Amino acid sequence: xxxxxxxxxxxxxxxxxxxxxxxxxxxxxxxxxxxxxxxxxxxxxxxxxxxxxxxxxxxxxxxxxxxxxxxxxxxxxxxxxxxxxxxxxxxxxxxxxxxxxxxxxxxxxxxxxxxxxxxxxxxxxxxxxxxxxxxxxxxxxxxxxxxxxxxxxxxxxxxxxxxxxxxxxxxxxxxxxxxxxxxxxxxxxxxxxxxxxxxxxxxxxxxxxxxxxxxxxxxxxxxxxxxxxxxxxxxxxxxxxxxxxxxxxxxxxxxxxxxxxxxxxxxxxxxxxxxxxxxxxxxxxxxxxxxxxxxxxxxxxxxxxxxxxxxxxxxxxxxxxxxxxxxxxxxxxxxxxxxxxxxxxxxxxxxxxxxxxxxxxxxxxxxxxxxxxxxxxxxxxxxxxxxxxxxxxxxxxxxxxxxxxxxxxxxxxxxxxxxxxxxxxxxxxxxxxxxxxxxxxxxxxxxxxxxxxxxxxxxxxxxxxxxxxxxxxxxxxxxxxxxxxxxxxxxxxxxxxxxxxxxxxxxxxxxxxxxxxxxxxxxxxxxxxxxxxxxxxxxxxxxxxxxxxxxxxxxxxxxxxxxxxxxxxxxxxxxxxxxxxxxxxxxxxxxxxxxxxxxxxxxxxxxxxxxxxxxxxxxxxxxxxxxxxxxxxxxxxxxxxxxxxxxxxxxxxxxxxxxxxxxxxxxxxxxxxxxxxxxxxxxxxxxxxxxxxxxxxxxxxxxxxxxxxxxxxxxxxxxxxxxxxxxxxxxxxxxxxxxxxxxxxxxxxxxxxxxxxxxxxxxxxxxxxxxxxxxxxxxxxxxxxxxxxxxxxxxxxxxxxxxxxxxxxxxxxxxxxxxxxxxxxxxxxxxxxxxxxxxxxxxxxxxxxxxxxxxxxxxxxxxxxxxxxxxxxxxxxxxxxxxxxxxxxxxxxxxxxxxxxxxxxxxxxxxxxxxxxxxxxxxxxxxxx
Length: 929
Description:
Blueprint (H helix, E strand, L loop, with lengths): L16 H9 L2 H8 L24 E4 L10 H10 L10 H10 L13 E2 L9 E5 L7 E6 L5 E5 L2 H26 L4 H5 L3 H13 L4 H14 L1 H28 L5 H4 L17 H15 L6 H15 L1 H12 L15 E4 L18 E2 L3 E6 L4 H15 L8 E5 L10 E5 L5 E2 L3 E8 L2 E8 L8 E3 L3 E7 L5 E9 L1 E7 L2 E4 L1 E9 L10 E10 L2 E9 L2 E9 L9 H7 L8 H8 L6 E7 L3 E5 L16 E2 L26 E3 L3 E4 L6 E3 L12 H14 L4 H12 L3 H14 L7 H16 L16 H23 L1 H10 L26 H11 L18 H16 L3 H4 L11 H5 L4 E2 L17 E4 L6
Parallel strand pairs: 5-12, 6-28, 11-29, 16-25
Antiparallel strand pairs: 1-2, 1-30, 3-4, 4-5, 7-21, 8-20, 9-10, 9-27, 10-30, 12-13, 13-14, 14-15, 15-23, 16-17, 16-22, 17-18, 19-20, 20-21, 21-22, 23-24, 24-26
Helix pairs in contact: 2-3, 5-9, 5-11, 7-14, 8-9, 8-11, 12-13, 12-22, 15-16, 17-18, 19-20, 19-23, 20-21, 21-22, 21-24
């Protein structure tokens, strides 16, 4: 019987009514007997000792909630829904992960692995849970450890190694892999059901990557052809990996231990076993890669929104002053921004040209969004479904909000051991099963342990090698440009180099019917995208009276498979022997990431991505005319290749005193596509703490973990902006009793550290709860009252479209909506900070073009702050936290809490809020090869 996690450990989610109805009619006892678990793996009589090729000395750790096992049979799903029982290793990493929030202050080096896994190579003999030779192969063995069930794959041949990687991936994530290969093709609703979330997800990705099957195959062919022997090896690895996946599909189908979601969605019959699970093919890997690249590694976009807000600024202030105002809010190169490379090095990219060339700004009021969904029937034609489409389009087309992930890396010069220390990892959201999976792969030319995206785990993508570790954060520099193509003949022809050219029409028809898993009534629709040589059409408008279509061209478009070579290199111990080799490998990754490295002697950093070389005078912030003079240099539309900035022009560094990254600005003069790189950024939460540690010297693993964990509980607004707001308010005595009481509570919270923490572990009540409620209510009120009178409602609204006002933990935001953990990345904290300091008469570098709070008058500004604070203090918890399907109105802790968003049938409890990486490593190597 699967173990049951005690209810005291996690807060259980509610079981949906449709599953309850199903449980009343299902023959559970019959199902349990045949479907409870897969065929038993062989218990190991002998085990692998800790590997001799491991140079970390027991000081490498990692964690990835909720658990390694992301597959569950039908019976296991039913038991979970009915009684809360968990399949083995489905959530055994969730408790340790959650407990760091309350346990980090008492952390020691000896107790780190109470909150993390030991990520040493191999499995100690007394910790081996099972061994297997997948498909009876003698050239590969999969050993799983007792603590977390992580697969440790060891092969004597390259083919066998990759076969084992594919087999293990399917054992742990088959259903999730199937879901996302359908997302990448825009076919999720037909596969998994017509739920609103499914509709929104497939629409969001299809708009970005409307590929045909031929497009997917061409990307494989081109990546192999361009990369010589490594390209051929990658193809062979992919073929072996796919063979392993498909072998598991066949074995689990015949043995009837495949994921139960196939039964619940109607793909398999739970009684007769009729139905099929389609084999994976190589183009599925490209479809999967397109999803991951779009989510986390494709900075840019939003040029049309930028143009709209610029025009609004110019309308209010005039062209010259309006441009100054707009640029001050854009903060392209803010001198007060926290930097990853902070040694003064300059890496110019994406800056404002002296004289812009080729701009194609729309005529006021002419912009319309290009429709994606047509021919709606049934449940697809409801108002709710149309609202879902609107939200998906807004998410896809707005300025790049693809952040998340953090890194803290300290040079050995400043550590107690003399060896570098790193605490880093990606913030990929919280899902059940998790998008990432843990594994160790040892075979010819491969030696690594860490996390990989499910279905793309032929190599470790974030993790460790024999004597080095690496990780990434999303960087967001601009690799997406918007072109205005002039229309001719009709709305689906455009001028390309003077010739009237037909657009390509690509469409995907989807339909669905109710299933046990998804009761959404039957419906259907067609997604239709018009493609040009300059990319897919996203908007229509007029420019100077001419009809145009605005298209988006991404440098990684049609190149989703290219990064495989960089990951292959990172896994190769014969390739990576030091920081320069690491940087060379990262240069082969075309997605936009910040990459970090640590071994026993060195640290390093490199910013990856194919940054196109733009024509002189082109401003990447705005649409430009689709004409040869304004195209990327040496751009080939057939292959979507161009000249790219050289590696030396990308922010990079070796052995800086320390590195921090929380999706902040990379380096001086290097502009990212997203707004908000100003004086207050969540990167400051890391930088302030690590800078203090480095100044004191003798940094330990414990101290660096504590710095990360402390920042993970901090309210950025309260730590970095609230003291200035209170300074204005306290410039005179506060006579209003409500406001005075609120000030006292906010001041006490700020003095105590401005953290959002429980009174005690598991209390589900925040210390300083009233102060937190007041600030959550006050922030949107004060921002609106501070800026809207000066900007005017139109410009204020447009600027909030470029950068949202707030991103508190309880807000619905990011790719996963509310309960997502990641917080305080996008907001107006820098604007408030700069404006308030200006009103106070303090020195502000890179200030806003005007003073806004009270028109720049301290007394008037103070009155605005007090009046909005008084209003916020009077709001009840139920008003501030209105409740949702998980939380009752007024439940502050629950509103903030993190939920493992279900992508399958297994549910997990919500945990207390933390703002930290999903997968995380703690490393300190003691020696080197």
